[in-house]
Each structure stands twice: as C-alpha cells, then as structure tokens.
Specification:
2 copies of one chain form a homodimer.
Chain A lengths: L1 H9 L6 H7 L7 H10 L3 E4 L4 E3 L8 E6 L2 E6 L5 E7 L4 E2 L12 E4 L3 E6 L1 H8 L3 H27 L2 H18 L3 E2 L2 E3 L4 H8 L3 H13 L3 E4 L2 E4 L2 H7 L21
Antiparallel strand pairs in A: 1-8, 2-7, 3-6, 3-8, 4-5, 4-7, 9-10, 10-12, 11-12
Helix pairs in contact in A: 3-4, 6-8, 6-9, 7-8
The structure holds a DNA duplex.
DNA sequence: CGTCTGGTTGATACGACTCAAATTTGGTGG
DNA sequence: CCACCAAATTTGAGTCGTATCAACCAGACG
C-alpha cells in the first residue's frame, strides 16, 4: 500500500491521474482511494472537439469526469448569444450528484477532442461508501467549483476587459499546474479567441486587441495553442488575482492517509 | 405522522418553514424530516442589517441557514470595488459542507436584519443520517445554488443592463414565491439601488435610469422596498428568463414521503 | 430641525461593440 | 509538395451603452 502510493505519487502525470492530483490538492489519497478512483474511471468515451458531451434538456444519468482534453459548460440565449460559464480541464468532475436533476439546464461541450469518464450513481456510491476521505475530497471539489463560478461572476461584474482576460489566463494556468499540466509558466491553451470572448462576455475583436495589449506589456505569449505566462507575479497583480478561492492550501494534510 | 404532515403542509408559511417549503420544491418531506429540520434550526442568532454574518478569511465552523431577512455573498477587490455574487432569501442555506474549507473566500453580509440558524457539522450529520430523502434534498439545494450562480454569470456576460435587471427581479420573485413570500406579483424587496448595482455590475446611476425604463414600460412597480411585477410573462420574455435553472419541476414527487 | 441615506437628474467621456475587410494559419486532397 | 479552403486572427473606422462626475431632492431619524 505504501509502495503503490509512493510510486503513483512520483509519477508526474499520466492517464487517469489528473483526478488524483486534483483531489490531492485537498487531501492525500491512500492506495485504496487511488485504486477506487481508477476503477470508477474505467468506463470512458471520446468526444470530438466542438461536440456536446451532454446537452441542455437531457436527463443526466451519470457523472462526467474529464480525463484528457478541455471542455466547457455553456448556455445559449434565445437571441443566439452563447456564454461559456465554466471550463473543465483534466481532473475536473462535471457535477457530482447531477443525476438528481430531471434535466440539464446547460450543455457541456468538448473544446478539444475529449476523453471523458462516465460514472454511474452506483459507482459514485461505491467510490464514497466506507471512504470518508474520498467523500470529503469530492465535497471539497464541489466547493471549489462553486468558488470558481463565483469568481467568474465577480470577474464579469467588476473587472475591465484587460483584467478579466488576465485573470482567466492565470486561473487556468494555476488549475493546470495543480494537475501537472503546466510548468514554468507554460501550458497548452486550446481556446480560440472566440471561446475566450464567449467566456469573458467580450467580442472576439476586443479579445484580440486586449491580448495584444497583454503581449505588449510583456505579461504573456500566446500562439499555436500554447500559453506562456512571462511574469506571473505581475499578471496576478494587474488582474487582482487572489488565489484563495482555489483553496489549494494543503491544510487537509491532517487527513493524510499515510501520516 | 400523517396528521402532523398534513397540518404543517397546510400552513402557508411561518417561522422556520421557509426551508421546508424550499426543499419541498424538490421532494415531499415527512413529519420526521420536518421535525429534524426544526431541531437543526433551533440554534439561531440575529445579525443587524449591513453587518457580516461571516467574513472573508474566517474559518467556517457551521452551516448558516437564513430563517428570515435577506443576506448576500460578496467579494471585495483590492481597488475597493464590491460585488454581490449571490443573494440569500429565507430558506436558503449558505453552503452545505463549507466547514471543510480552511477559510472563507468571500463574506456573507446581512442586507436586512437577519435571523440565521447556525448548524454544526454534527447536526448536519444527524439531519442526514438515516434520511436519504433529506440528503438528496440538500444535494438538490446545492445543485440549484450552483445553477443560479451560473445564471448570474450568464446574466453579467450576455445581457444588457435592462435585461439583466429584469432577469434578477424575476428570479428573486420566483425564489420568494417558492418559499411563500411572494404572491400576485408582489414581494418585499429590501435591496437599495446601490445593492442592485453591486449585484449587476452596473453603477447605481445606471440602475436608477434602467429601473425607470422598466417602470415606464409597465413591467414593474418598485417603491418603499416593495416590488410589484405587473406583467410576469412579458418581463420574462424581455429578460429571456428560462426558469429551468431553478429546477422547480416537482418530479421529485416519486420520492414522496406520503405516497 | 439638521443630518444622512437613498434616489433622481444632467452633461460629458470612454470602453467595448459593430460592421467590414484583409491576412494568416492549419488542415486536406491532388 | 503545393493548391486550396475554412477557420482563426488581425486591422480600421465609426457608434453606442454605460461610466463618471456633480448636483439636487425626498424622506427617515435622532
């Protein structure tokens, strides 16, 4: 048990371990926890880029968990406007417990080609039953997801286009870093300027000009779907980025499985 | 049991029953469920208007449940801007499970004088243990809260000032109606134009002018902290209000305790 | 009766949008 | 390997929604 944990703990990342990395931002997982997580993600499928994983109005029957690629939650307005209300990167659950609801009030779409696990209610129960640490970790995940949503609300409500875009880039960089998909200020960044526009409530034209400003100010490089944050402290400063809402402080270590 | 349920079921509203009304939008509660809810809310306090219930940075030790009055979640930016990211009306929980987190990433403030229950983790466990329907109802509550937060994100991102304010008014009216605090298009509405500005990302000056437009168009009356929605279908139309995100469809009746 | 908070009005400025077109990039098939 | 096409990015010019700044007014309250 100790060995397995130690080994998997040293693997920087790999198929299926993004979830574990994410949950370990809250609490150390035991070998059994990791194994259970692996079991729950055995059932997965691929979704092509720009296709829906599940659409507004559908009855949710399982929990989705992003194993690889990026996805988004979006809502469409009758006048045709689309808004991306959330982004999912590897390791993110798309709503623990959704299957309680009768119908989806939004759609989940793949940004890139997506590898996504489908976890049934029974499997979720099996995952959490007798595993209080796992239960807590999932609650933490939901709380963080809610906190991110609030921060996006704040972002749209109070920040300028420049600050707003900067804030989004920093958030995504940090989230990717916690699941081992970002290093040295660099990460994959598959969003088009159109996606960024839909996520920030700006037009793609204005996103374009604002990104040029960010580049001009020496804060970022962004091309060929690669983001490079050149000056993290400064971009955090200008976007008034307070990382507290990501709740990455490892205080959960008092729940350490291997303590 | 049947008698007690029937009796409490016929009381339109009263101290402590807003929660039950809210949860019953999802599932019928048994007499035992109601009693347990009553027990959990026995420990409450009053908070003066404009005072914090809990502040950013504080360690959350219990779940808060609004019994009477209005409250809000807000976040403050270093440049002094404040944004109200959520509103609470009677019957709303302020984050089931928060106590998992190390520190609040936002503050909860009273809009009016507030009667708020403080429920300890132990009491929450006692409330849900052996009561799967209650557990589900609380999950539903959290899912709806998340859906509302997404809708606010959409609201800020895609709707004009006019649509945005209209949407907010409709949402609050419907939420109050589900807990028996709104009838015939009328409800208490203690928010100042300043609060509305902080919640919609507008300035209070623009909120003022936009409210005048809504009044001029015969959609609402709003004075002396009383809101009167004159034409619900039309204001829903102009604000592109789709109530699906409130998940008020009583399909949960298959879980009816008295079926 | 003065003070304060919340609401209202007017004049002006600017950030972001709109529309339109050009350019670059990435992928595909010949 | 090149030609071609669609998608994504970039640029320019003009407009509009909302912010800003500055008064002023009304009712509540001590």
């Amino acid at each position: 048990m100790t060995l397995l944990t130690a080994v998997s703990g040293t693997i920087p990342f790999g198929a299926g371990s993004a979830v574990a990395s994410k949950l370990e931002a809250f609490t150390r997982l035991s070998a059994d926890d990791r194994a259970a997580l692996g079991g729950a993600t055995r059932n997965f499928r691929y979704v092509d880029a720009r296709r829906d994983v599940i659409s507004e109005g559908d009855k949710p029957r399982c929990v989705h968990l992003v194993l690889d690629g990026w996805a988004c939650r979006y809502k469409q307005l009758p006048d045709g406007k689309r808004h991306i209300v959330a982004l999912f990167v590897p390791g993110d659950f798309c709503d623990v417990n959704v299957y309680i609801l009768k119908a989806m009030d939004h759609s989940i779409g793949a940004i890139t080609r997506l590898k996504v696990a489908m976890i049934t209610p029974d499997e979720m129960n099996a995952l959490t039953a007798e595993r209080p640490r796992m239960t807590q970790a999932l609650s933490w995940h939901e709380l963080v997801t809610a906190a991110v949503q609030r921060e996006w609300t704040l972002n749209l409500g109070q920040r300028s286009a420049y600050e707003r875009l900067a804030h989004l880039l920093v958030e995504l960089y940090l989230r990717l870093a916690t699941v081992g998909r970002a290093y040295d200020g660099r990460c994959d960044f598959p969003l088009t300027q159109n996606d960024l526009a839909d996520a920030t409530g700006l037009t793609s034209v204005h996103v374009n000009r604002t990104l040029q400003e960010l580049r001009g100010d020496g804060l970022i490089e962004l091309e060929r779907k690669q983001l490079h944050i050149l000056d993290l402290p400064r971009i955090m400063e200008v976007s008034m980025f307070n990382p507290n809402y990501l709740h990455l402080d490892h205080e959960g270590r008092h729940l350490d499985a291997n303590a």
